[in-house]
Amino acid sequence: MLTEASTYDELYRNFRWDVPDRFNMATACCDRYADGSNRLALIYVDEDGATTRTSFDEVAEMSRRFANVLKADGLSRGDRIAVFLSQSLELPIAHLAAFRSGMISIPLFALFGEDALEFRLSNSGARAIITDESGWEKLSKIRDRLPYLQAIYVTTSIAHAGAKPFWPAIEDADDVFPTVDTSADDPALIIYTSGTTGNPKGALHAHRVVLGHLPNVEMCHNFLPRPGDLMWTPADWAWIGGLINALFAFWYHGIPLVGHRARKFEPQAAMTMMAELGIRNTFLPPTALKLMRQADVKNPGLNLRSIFTGGESLGGELHGWVNETFGIDAHEVFGQTECNLVIGSNSNLFPIRPGSMGKATPGFDVRIVNDKGEELPRGARGIIGVRQPCPCTMIEYWKNPEATAKKYAGEFLLTGDLGVQDEDGYFWYVSREDDVITTAGYRVGPSEIEHTLMKHPAVAMSAVVGIPDPIRTESIKAWIVLRPGFAPSDELAREIQEFVKVQLAAHEYPRFVQFAETLPMTATGKVLRRELRALG
Fold it and tell me: Which of these, 184, 176, 170, lies nearest to 28 by C-alpha position?
Protein backbone atom coordinates (compact mmCIF):
# COMPACT_ATOMS: atom_id res chain seq x y z
CA MET A 1 0.00 0.00 0.00
CA LEU A 2 2.90 2.37 0.72
CA THR A 3 4.95 3.80 -2.10
CA GLU A 4 8.50 3.70 -0.81
CA ALA A 5 10.18 7.01 -0.10
CA SER A 6 13.52 8.16 1.26
CA THR A 7 12.05 10.50 3.86
CA TYR A 8 9.13 10.36 6.25
CA ASP A 9 7.76 13.70 5.04
CA GLU A 10 7.63 12.43 1.47
CA LEU A 11 6.03 9.16 2.56
CA TYR A 12 3.37 10.92 4.63
CA ARG A 13 2.65 13.64 2.08
CA ASN A 14 2.21 11.30 -0.89
CA PHE A 15 0.11 8.61 0.79
CA ARG A 16 -3.48 8.05 -0.37
CA TRP A 17 -5.87 5.38 0.88
CA ASP A 18 -7.04 2.86 -1.71
CA VAL A 19 -9.91 0.92 -0.15
CA PRO A 20 -12.02 -0.90 -2.75
CA ASP A 21 -15.79 -1.00 -2.38
CA ARG A 22 -15.91 -4.82 -2.53
CA PHE A 23 -13.37 -6.56 -0.33
CA ASN A 24 -13.09 -9.82 1.61
CA MET A 25 -10.23 -10.73 3.93
CA ALA A 26 -10.23 -14.40 2.88
CA THR A 27 -9.68 -13.46 -0.74
CA ALA A 28 -7.11 -10.77 0.01
CA CYS A 29 -5.09 -12.63 2.65
CA CYS A 30 -5.17 -16.16 1.25
CA ASP A 31 -6.97 -16.96 -1.99
CA ARG A 32 -4.92 -14.76 -4.30
CA TYR A 33 -1.80 -16.74 -3.32
CA ALA A 34 -3.56 -20.11 -3.64
CA ASP A 35 -2.68 -20.40 -7.32
CA GLY A 36 -1.36 -23.94 -7.45
CA SER A 37 2.22 -22.88 -6.76
CA ASN A 38 2.25 -24.30 -3.22
CA ARG A 39 3.50 -20.99 -1.90
CA LEU A 40 4.46 -21.34 1.77
CA ALA A 41 1.98 -19.83 4.24
CA LEU A 42 2.81 -21.29 7.65
CA ILE A 43 5.62 -23.08 9.43
CA TYR A 44 4.19 -24.55 12.61
CA VAL A 45 6.52 -25.56 15.44
CA ASP A 46 4.87 -27.68 18.12
CA GLU A 47 5.81 -27.87 21.82
CA ASP A 48 8.34 -30.61 21.10
CA GLY A 49 10.02 -28.70 18.27
CA ALA A 50 8.59 -30.71 15.36
CA THR A 51 7.72 -28.57 12.33
CA THR A 52 5.04 -28.80 9.64
CA ARG A 53 4.74 -26.60 6.57
CA THR A 54 1.45 -25.58 4.99
CA SER A 55 0.88 -23.75 1.71
CA PHE A 56 -1.67 -21.08 0.84
CA ASP A 57 -3.31 -23.64 -1.48
CA GLU A 58 -3.83 -25.99 1.46
CA VAL A 59 -5.05 -23.26 3.82
CA ALA A 60 -7.53 -22.01 1.21
CA GLU A 61 -8.92 -25.49 0.57
CA MET A 62 -9.26 -26.34 4.26
CA SER A 63 -11.01 -23.05 4.99
CA ARG A 64 -13.45 -23.66 2.11
CA ARG A 65 -14.19 -27.10 3.51
CA PHE A 66 -14.78 -25.68 6.98
CA ALA A 67 -17.05 -23.00 5.53
CA ASN A 68 -19.16 -25.86 4.14
CA VAL A 69 -19.16 -27.53 7.57
CA LEU A 70 -20.50 -24.35 9.15
CA LYS A 71 -23.14 -23.99 6.46
CA ALA A 72 -24.27 -27.61 6.84
CA ASP A 73 -24.64 -27.06 10.58
CA GLY A 74 -27.09 -24.23 10.01
CA LEU A 75 -24.84 -21.20 10.38
CA SER A 76 -25.21 -18.31 7.98
CA ARG A 77 -24.08 -14.81 7.13
CA GLY A 78 -23.85 -12.52 10.17
CA ASP A 79 -23.55 -15.34 12.71
CA ARG A 80 -20.72 -15.10 15.23
CA ILE A 81 -18.05 -17.81 15.31
CA ALA A 82 -15.62 -17.93 18.27
CA VAL A 83 -12.05 -19.13 17.74
CA PHE A 84 -10.71 -20.27 21.11
CA LEU A 85 -7.22 -21.42 20.10
CA SER A 86 -3.57 -20.50 20.50
CA GLN A 87 -1.16 -20.19 17.55
CA SER A 88 -2.00 -23.12 15.28
CA LEU A 89 -2.99 -24.06 11.73
CA GLU A 90 -6.63 -24.47 12.77
CA LEU A 91 -6.85 -20.84 13.88
CA PRO A 92 -6.50 -19.12 10.47
CA ILE A 93 -8.55 -21.87 8.82
CA ALA A 94 -11.45 -21.01 11.14
CA HIS A 95 -11.16 -17.25 10.68
CA LEU A 96 -10.89 -17.50 6.90
CA ALA A 97 -13.91 -19.82 6.77
CA ALA A 98 -15.91 -17.22 8.68
CA PHE A 99 -14.71 -14.36 6.46
CA ARG A 100 -15.56 -16.16 3.22
CA SER A 101 -18.99 -17.06 4.64
CA GLY A 102 -19.84 -13.48 5.62
CA MET A 103 -19.82 -14.52 9.28
CA ILE A 104 -18.14 -12.64 12.13
CA SER A 105 -15.24 -14.34 13.87
CA ILE A 106 -14.32 -13.75 17.51
CA PRO A 107 -10.71 -14.44 18.49
CA LEU A 108 -10.45 -15.61 22.11
CA PHE A 109 -7.25 -15.95 24.14
CA ALA A 110 -6.55 -19.62 24.82
CA LEU A 111 -5.68 -18.99 28.48
CA PHE A 112 -9.00 -17.36 29.32
CA GLY A 113 -10.72 -18.87 32.33
CA GLU A 114 -14.37 -19.85 32.51
CA ASP A 115 -15.67 -16.41 33.56
CA ALA A 116 -13.82 -14.54 30.81
CA LEU A 117 -14.93 -17.09 28.25
CA GLU A 118 -18.57 -17.03 29.33
CA PHE A 119 -18.75 -13.22 29.25
CA ARG A 120 -17.45 -13.00 25.67
CA LEU A 121 -19.53 -15.86 24.32
CA SER A 122 -22.68 -14.52 25.97
CA ASN A 123 -22.07 -10.91 25.00
CA SER A 124 -21.39 -11.79 21.37
CA GLY A 125 -24.15 -14.37 21.05
CA ALA A 126 -21.67 -16.75 19.44
CA ARG A 127 -23.40 -19.66 17.68
CA ALA A 128 -20.29 -21.76 17.12
CA ILE A 129 -16.86 -22.21 18.67
CA ILE A 130 -13.65 -23.91 17.58
CA THR A 131 -11.34 -25.00 20.37
CA ASP A 132 -8.84 -27.64 21.50
CA GLU A 133 -8.84 -30.10 24.39
CA SER A 134 -7.84 -27.48 26.94
CA GLY A 135 -10.56 -25.14 25.75
CA TRP A 136 -13.15 -27.90 25.78
CA GLU A 137 -12.49 -28.57 29.47
CA LYS A 138 -13.41 -24.97 30.29
CA LEU A 139 -16.26 -24.74 27.79
CA SER A 140 -17.95 -27.93 29.01
CA LYS A 141 -18.37 -26.38 32.48
CA ILE A 142 -20.31 -23.37 31.17
CA ARG A 143 -22.04 -24.95 28.16
CA ASP A 144 -25.46 -24.98 29.85
CA ARG A 145 -25.29 -21.22 30.38
CA LEU A 146 -24.78 -20.47 26.67
CA PRO A 147 -28.18 -20.82 24.98
CA TYR A 148 -27.04 -19.30 21.66
CA LEU A 149 -24.19 -21.76 21.19
CA GLN A 150 -25.28 -24.54 18.84
CA ALA A 151 -22.07 -25.96 17.34
CA ILE A 152 -18.78 -26.90 19.01
CA TYR A 153 -15.74 -28.15 17.09
CA VAL A 154 -12.76 -29.66 18.92
CA THR A 155 -9.42 -29.94 17.12
CA THR A 156 -8.13 -32.98 19.02
CA SER A 157 -9.03 -36.58 18.22
CA ILE A 158 -10.76 -37.27 21.55
CA ALA A 159 -14.53 -37.67 21.17
CA HIS A 160 -16.80 -35.49 23.32
CA ALA A 161 -20.57 -35.61 23.65
CA GLY A 162 -22.06 -32.47 22.15
CA ALA A 163 -18.97 -31.60 20.11
CA LYS A 164 -17.74 -32.44 16.62
CA PRO A 165 -14.16 -33.39 15.80
CA PHE A 166 -12.77 -30.57 13.66
CA TRP A 167 -10.51 -32.47 11.25
CA PRO A 168 -12.85 -35.36 10.35
CA ALA A 169 -15.59 -32.81 9.64
CA ILE A 170 -13.27 -30.94 7.27
CA GLU A 171 -12.16 -34.12 5.51
CA ASP A 172 -15.78 -35.10 4.82
CA ALA A 173 -16.80 -31.67 3.49
CA ASP A 174 -16.87 -30.43 -0.09
CA ASP A 175 -13.83 -28.36 -1.11
CA VAL A 176 -15.85 -25.97 -3.28
CA PHE A 177 -17.29 -22.90 -1.57
CA PRO A 178 -17.95 -19.61 -3.38
CA THR A 179 -16.81 -16.72 -1.17
CA VAL A 180 -19.72 -14.37 -0.46
CA ASP A 181 -19.63 -10.88 -1.92
CA THR A 182 -18.75 -8.49 0.90
CA SER A 183 -18.10 -4.79 1.01
CA ALA A 184 -15.03 -3.40 2.75
CA ASP A 185 -17.39 -2.05 5.42
CA ASP A 186 -19.15 -5.34 6.17
CA PRO A 187 -18.43 -6.74 9.67
CA ALA A 188 -15.73 -9.39 9.95
CA LEU A 189 -14.38 -9.52 13.51
CA ILE A 190 -15.29 -8.80 17.11
CA ILE A 191 -12.09 -8.29 19.08
CA TYR A 192 -12.60 -7.76 22.78
CA THR A 193 -10.53 -5.10 24.49
CA SER A 194 -8.03 -6.33 27.03
CA GLY A 195 -9.97 -4.60 29.79
CA THR A 196 -7.46 -2.59 31.84
CA THR A 197 -10.55 -0.91 33.34
CA GLY A 198 -14.09 -2.32 33.60
CA ASN A 199 -15.59 -5.12 31.54
CA PRO A 200 -14.05 -5.74 28.13
CA LYS A 201 -15.91 -4.26 25.17
CA GLY A 202 -16.24 -5.95 21.81
CA ALA A 203 -14.78 -3.83 19.02
CA LEU A 204 -16.64 -4.76 15.83
CA HIS A 205 -14.29 -4.44 12.85
CA ALA A 206 -14.97 -4.52 9.14
CA HIS A 207 -13.05 -6.40 6.43
CA ARG A 208 -11.19 -3.14 5.69
CA VAL A 209 -9.38 -3.39 9.04
CA VAL A 210 -6.49 -5.30 7.48
CA LEU A 211 -6.05 -2.53 4.88
CA GLY A 212 -6.03 0.03 7.68
CA HIS A 213 -3.08 -1.77 9.29
CA LEU A 214 -0.88 -1.93 6.19
CA PRO A 215 0.72 1.56 6.16
CA ASN A 216 2.12 1.17 9.67
CA VAL A 217 3.11 -2.49 9.30
CA GLU A 218 4.91 -1.72 6.04
CA MET A 219 6.66 1.38 7.38
CA CYS A 220 7.75 -0.14 10.69
CA HIS A 221 8.98 -3.37 9.09
CA ASN A 222 11.20 -1.45 6.65
CA PHE A 223 8.70 -1.92 3.80
CA LEU A 224 7.10 -5.16 2.66
CA PRO A 225 7.51 -7.57 1.06
CA ARG A 226 11.19 -8.41 0.60
CA PRO A 227 12.69 -11.70 -0.61
CA GLY A 228 13.20 -14.09 2.28
CA ASP A 229 10.81 -12.34 4.67
CA LEU A 230 9.56 -14.68 7.41
CA MET A 231 7.50 -13.44 10.36
CA TRP A 232 7.22 -14.65 13.95
CA THR A 233 5.72 -13.16 17.08
CA PRO A 234 5.18 -14.58 20.56
CA ALA A 235 2.05 -12.40 20.75
CA ASP A 236 -1.03 -14.58 20.80
CA TRP A 237 -3.11 -14.56 17.62
CA ALA A 238 -6.23 -13.84 19.69
CA TRP A 239 -5.36 -10.13 19.96
CA ILE A 240 -5.35 -7.46 17.29
CA GLY A 241 -1.56 -7.27 17.58
CA GLY A 242 -0.99 -10.93 16.79
CA LEU A 243 -3.96 -11.53 14.51
CA ILE A 244 -3.86 -8.44 12.30
CA ASN A 245 -0.43 -6.80 12.80
CA ALA A 246 1.28 -10.14 12.27
CA LEU A 247 -0.83 -12.93 10.77
CA PHE A 248 -3.19 -11.30 8.30
CA ALA A 249 -1.12 -8.21 7.43
CA PHE A 250 1.77 -10.49 6.46
CA TRP A 251 -0.48 -12.95 4.63
CA TYR A 252 -1.92 -9.99 2.73
CA HIS A 253 1.58 -9.66 1.28
CA GLY A 254 1.98 -13.41 0.80
CA ILE A 255 4.70 -13.56 3.48
CA PRO A 256 4.87 -16.80 5.49
CA LEU A 257 4.60 -16.91 9.27
CA VAL A 258 5.96 -19.15 11.95
CA GLY A 259 3.42 -20.35 14.49
CA HIS A 260 4.63 -21.78 17.77
CA ARG A 261 2.66 -23.12 20.71
CA ALA A 262 5.03 -22.73 23.65
CA ARG A 263 4.17 -23.79 27.19
CA LYS A 264 5.54 -20.42 28.28
CA PHE A 265 7.77 -17.72 26.84
CA GLU A 266 11.40 -18.79 27.20
CA PRO A 267 13.65 -15.86 26.23
CA GLN A 268 16.76 -17.74 25.11
CA ALA A 269 14.71 -20.47 23.42
CA ALA A 270 12.94 -17.74 21.44
CA MET A 271 16.30 -16.36 20.30
CA THR A 272 17.47 -19.82 19.27
CA MET A 273 14.29 -20.57 17.33
CA MET A 274 14.50 -17.25 15.45
CA ALA A 275 18.09 -18.02 14.48
CA GLU A 276 17.44 -21.63 13.42
CA LEU A 277 14.40 -20.77 11.27
CA GLY A 278 15.93 -17.64 9.76
CA ILE A 279 13.27 -15.25 11.05
CA ARG A 280 13.56 -11.90 9.25
CA ASN A 281 10.66 -9.97 10.81
CA THR A 282 9.38 -10.07 14.36
CA PHE A 283 6.86 -8.40 16.62
CA LEU A 284 8.23 -8.49 20.16
CA PRO A 285 6.03 -6.69 22.71
CA PRO A 286 7.87 -4.69 25.41
CA THR A 287 7.04 -7.36 28.00
CA ALA A 288 8.85 -10.00 25.92
CA LEU A 289 11.81 -7.67 25.48
CA LYS A 290 11.94 -6.99 29.23
CA LEU A 291 11.95 -10.73 29.91
CA MET A 292 14.77 -11.16 27.40
CA ARG A 293 16.74 -8.39 29.07
CA GLN A 294 16.08 -9.88 32.49
CA ALA A 295 17.36 -13.26 31.27
CA ASP A 296 20.47 -11.64 29.75
CA VAL A 297 19.86 -13.43 26.43
CA LYS A 298 22.66 -13.99 23.95
CA ASN A 299 22.31 -13.33 20.22
CA PRO A 300 22.96 -16.69 18.51
CA GLY A 301 23.45 -15.13 15.07
CA LEU A 302 20.06 -13.66 14.21
CA ASN A 303 19.36 -12.38 10.72
CA LEU A 304 16.51 -10.02 11.62
CA ARG A 305 15.50 -7.29 9.19
CA SER A 306 12.88 -5.65 11.40
CA ILE A 307 11.73 -5.55 15.02
CA PHE A 308 8.25 -4.18 15.59
CA THR A 309 7.10 -3.45 19.15
CA GLY A 310 4.07 -1.97 20.87
CA GLY A 311 1.28 -2.57 23.35
CA GLU A 312 2.89 -0.45 26.03
CA SER A 313 5.60 2.20 26.06
CA LEU A 314 9.09 0.87 25.27
CA GLY A 315 11.15 3.57 26.99
CA GLY A 316 14.65 4.77 26.21
CA GLU A 317 16.54 2.28 28.39
CA LEU A 318 14.93 -0.76 26.79
CA HIS A 319 15.32 0.71 23.32
CA GLY A 320 19.07 1.03 23.85
CA TRP A 321 19.31 -2.55 25.09
CA VAL A 322 17.48 -3.84 22.00
CA ASN A 323 19.85 -2.05 19.64
CA GLU A 324 22.88 -3.36 21.51
CA THR A 325 21.58 -6.94 21.66
CA PHE A 326 19.96 -7.35 18.24
CA GLY A 327 22.05 -4.93 16.20
CA ILE A 328 19.01 -3.10 14.83
CA ASP A 329 16.49 -0.64 16.21
CA ALA A 330 13.12 -1.65 17.56
CA HIS A 331 10.43 0.31 15.73
CA GLU A 332 7.81 1.28 18.27
CA VAL A 333 4.13 1.67 17.39
CA PHE A 334 1.04 2.93 19.15
CA GLY A 335 -2.56 1.95 18.69
CA GLN A 336 -5.44 0.19 20.37
CA THR A 337 -8.04 -2.43 19.59
CA GLU A 338 -10.56 0.18 18.45
CA CYS A 339 -8.19 1.99 16.05
CA ASN A 340 -4.79 0.43 15.73
CA LEU A 341 -1.30 1.42 14.56
CA VAL A 342 -1.84 5.17 14.30
CA ILE A 343 1.74 6.09 15.30
CA GLY A 344 4.98 4.38 14.35
CA SER A 345 8.69 4.71 13.82
CA ASN A 346 11.39 3.78 11.35
CA SER A 347 15.02 4.71 11.99
CA ASN A 348 15.74 4.70 8.25
CA LEU A 349 13.20 7.48 7.67
CA PHE A 350 13.71 9.66 10.74
CA PRO A 351 15.92 9.53 13.83
CA ILE A 352 14.43 7.57 16.71
CA ARG A 353 14.17 9.55 19.90
CA PRO A 354 14.32 6.98 22.69
CA GLY A 355 11.17 7.19 24.76
CA SER A 356 9.09 8.53 21.87
CA MET A 357 6.52 6.38 20.08
CA GLY A 358 7.39 7.98 16.75
CA LYS A 359 5.28 9.98 14.32
CA ALA A 360 1.81 9.69 12.82
CA THR A 361 1.43 6.77 10.44
CA PRO A 362 0.91 7.81 6.79
CA GLY A 363 -2.83 8.05 6.20
CA PHE A 364 -3.60 8.93 9.83
CA ASP A 365 -4.21 12.42 11.19
CA VAL A 366 -3.20 12.14 14.85
CA ARG A 367 -3.49 15.12 17.19
CA ILE A 368 -3.37 15.94 20.88
CA VAL A 369 -6.86 17.07 21.88
CA ASN A 370 -8.98 17.79 24.94
CA ASP A 371 -12.06 15.80 25.94
CA LYS A 372 -14.20 17.95 23.61
CA GLY A 373 -12.08 17.01 20.59
CA GLU A 374 -10.44 20.43 20.39
CA GLU A 375 -6.81 20.46 19.24
CA LEU A 376 -4.15 21.51 21.74
CA PRO A 377 -0.87 23.24 20.89
CA ARG A 378 2.40 21.37 20.43
CA GLY A 379 4.00 20.57 23.77
CA ALA A 380 0.67 20.44 25.63
CA ARG A 381 -0.41 17.24 27.34
CA GLY A 382 -3.77 15.90 26.27
CA ILE A 383 -5.62 12.94 24.80
CA ILE A 384 -4.19 11.22 21.74
CA GLY A 385 -6.95 11.61 19.14
CA VAL A 386 -7.34 10.20 15.63
CA ARG A 387 -9.30 12.19 13.07
CA GLN A 388 -12.13 10.24 11.47
CA PRO A 389 -13.06 8.55 9.21
CA CYS A 390 -10.26 6.02 9.04
CA PRO A 391 -10.14 2.47 7.57
CA CYS A 392 -8.59 1.09 10.76
CA THR A 393 -11.39 2.27 13.04
CA MET A 394 -13.97 -0.14 14.42
CA ILE A 395 -17.57 0.03 13.26
CA GLU A 396 -18.81 0.20 16.85
CA TYR A 397 -18.65 -1.45 20.24
CA TRP A 398 -20.80 -4.56 19.97
CA LYS A 399 -24.20 -3.99 21.62
CA ASN A 400 -22.90 -0.89 23.39
CA PRO A 401 -24.03 2.34 21.67
CA GLU A 402 -23.41 4.42 24.79
CA ALA A 403 -19.74 3.42 24.98
CA THR A 404 -19.42 3.91 21.22
CA ALA A 405 -20.72 7.47 21.48
CA LYS A 406 -18.31 8.27 24.33
CA LYS A 407 -15.38 7.12 22.21
CA TYR A 408 -15.70 10.15 19.92
CA ALA A 409 -15.58 13.92 20.35
CA GLY A 410 -15.93 16.25 17.39
CA GLU A 411 -13.94 14.84 14.46
CA PHE A 412 -11.77 12.64 16.65
CA LEU A 413 -11.72 9.16 18.09
CA LEU A 414 -10.40 9.54 21.64
CA THR A 415 -7.91 6.83 22.50
CA GLY A 416 -8.09 7.46 26.24
CA ASP A 417 -4.30 7.67 26.31
CA LEU A 418 -2.51 10.85 27.29
CA GLY A 419 0.43 12.09 25.29
CA VAL A 420 2.43 15.05 24.06
CA GLN A 421 3.46 15.95 20.51
CA ASP A 422 6.67 17.94 20.29
CA GLU A 423 7.58 20.62 17.76
CA ASP A 424 9.14 18.04 15.42
CA GLY A 425 6.03 15.85 15.29
CA TYR A 426 7.19 13.11 17.66
CA PHE A 427 4.58 11.69 20.04
CA TRP A 428 5.45 10.93 23.66
CA TYR A 429 3.31 8.64 25.78
CA VAL A 430 2.26 9.85 29.24
CA SER A 431 -0.29 7.34 30.57
CA ARG A 432 -3.85 6.15 30.38
CA GLU A 433 -6.20 8.90 31.48
CA ASP A 434 -7.21 6.91 34.56
CA ASP A 435 -3.59 6.12 35.51
CA VAL A 436 -2.53 9.74 36.12
CA ILE A 437 -1.36 10.33 39.70
CA THR A 438 -2.25 13.58 41.47
CA THR A 439 0.34 14.29 44.15
CA ALA A 440 0.91 17.58 46.02
CA GLY A 441 -0.73 19.54 43.23
CA TYR A 442 1.25 17.84 40.45
CA ARG A 443 -0.23 15.52 37.84
CA VAL A 444 2.27 12.74 37.22
CA GLY A 445 2.16 10.00 34.59
CA PRO A 446 3.52 6.61 35.67
CA SER A 447 5.34 5.83 32.41
CA GLU A 448 8.13 8.36 32.86
CA ILE A 449 8.86 7.07 36.37
CA GLU A 450 8.79 3.46 35.13
CA HIS A 451 11.24 4.31 32.34
CA THR A 452 13.59 5.87 34.89
CA LEU A 453 13.29 2.84 37.17
CA MET A 454 14.28 0.61 34.26
CA LYS A 455 17.64 2.40 34.13
CA HIS A 456 18.54 1.13 37.61
CA PRO A 457 20.64 -2.05 37.35
CA ALA A 458 18.51 -3.92 39.90
CA VAL A 459 15.16 -3.37 38.18
CA ALA A 460 13.77 -5.92 35.72
CA MET A 461 10.18 -4.66 35.61
CA SER A 462 8.19 -2.00 37.40
CA ALA A 463 4.73 -0.53 37.71
CA VAL A 464 3.89 2.80 39.31
CA VAL A 465 0.53 3.72 40.85
CA GLY A 466 -0.96 6.34 43.11
CA ILE A 467 -2.21 5.38 46.57
CA PRO A 468 -4.41 7.57 48.80
CA ASP A 469 -2.58 10.17 50.87
CA PRO A 470 -4.48 12.52 53.24
CA ILE A 471 -2.02 15.36 52.62
CA ARG A 472 -0.81 14.92 49.04
CA THR A 473 -4.06 13.44 47.62
CA GLU A 474 -1.97 10.55 46.33
CA SER A 475 1.52 9.25 47.00
CA ILE A 476 3.59 7.48 44.37
CA LYS A 477 4.19 3.78 44.91
CA ALA A 478 6.48 1.61 42.79
CA TRP A 479 6.03 -2.14 42.47
CA ILE A 480 9.34 -3.65 41.38
CA VAL A 481 10.47 -7.04 40.07
CA LEU A 482 14.22 -7.41 40.62
CA ARG A 483 16.79 -8.78 38.20
CA PRO A 484 18.65 -11.99 39.10
CA GLY A 485 21.38 -11.39 41.65
CA PHE A 486 19.49 -8.71 43.59
CA ALA A 487 17.54 -9.29 46.81
CA PRO A 488 14.82 -7.09 48.33
CA SER A 489 15.97 -4.86 51.18
CA ASP A 490 15.19 -1.51 52.75
CA GLU A 491 18.60 -0.32 51.66
CA LEU A 492 17.91 -1.19 48.03
CA ALA A 493 14.51 0.51 48.22
CA ARG A 494 16.14 3.72 49.48
CA GLU A 495 18.78 3.49 46.77
CA ILE A 496 16.10 3.21 44.09
CA GLN A 497 14.14 6.13 45.55
CA GLU A 498 17.24 8.33 45.54
CA PHE A 499 18.03 7.22 41.99
CA VAL A 500 14.64 8.46 40.76
CA LYS A 501 14.99 11.72 42.68
CA VAL A 502 18.29 12.44 40.96
CA GLN A 503 17.37 11.14 37.52
CA LEU A 504 13.85 12.57 37.32
CA ALA A 505 12.50 14.96 39.94
CA ALA A 506 11.95 15.18 43.67
CA HIS A 507 8.16 15.23 43.35
CA GLU A 508 8.17 12.14 41.08
CA TYR A 509 10.13 9.69 43.20
CA PRO A 510 8.19 6.75 44.70
CA ARG A 511 7.63 7.35 48.40
CA PHE A 512 6.79 3.67 48.72
CA VAL A 513 8.63 0.75 47.11
CA GLN A 514 7.15 -2.75 47.08
CA PHE A 515 9.20 -5.66 45.76
CA ALA A 516 7.28 -8.46 44.04
CA GLU A 517 8.05 -11.64 42.13
CA THR A 518 5.59 -10.82 39.34
CA LEU A 519 3.24 -8.05 38.26
CA PRO A 520 -0.44 -8.56 37.38
CA MET A 521 -0.89 -8.20 33.64
CA THR A 522 -3.53 -8.50 30.98
CA ALA A 523 -3.14 -11.33 28.51
CA THR A 524 -1.58 -8.82 26.10
CA GLY A 525 1.19 -7.94 28.55
CA LYS A 526 -0.15 -4.64 29.89
CA VAL A 527 0.26 -4.05 33.61
CA LEU A 528 -3.05 -4.07 35.48
CA ARG A 529 -2.45 -0.99 37.60
CA ARG A 530 -5.98 -1.09 38.98
CA GLU A 531 -5.13 -4.36 40.76
CA LEU A 532 -2.01 -2.80 42.23
CA ARG A 533 -4.00 0.26 43.34
CA ALA A 534 -6.49 -2.05 45.06
CA LEU A 535 -3.65 -3.64 47.02
CA GLY A 536 -2.67 -0.22 48.35
Answer: 184
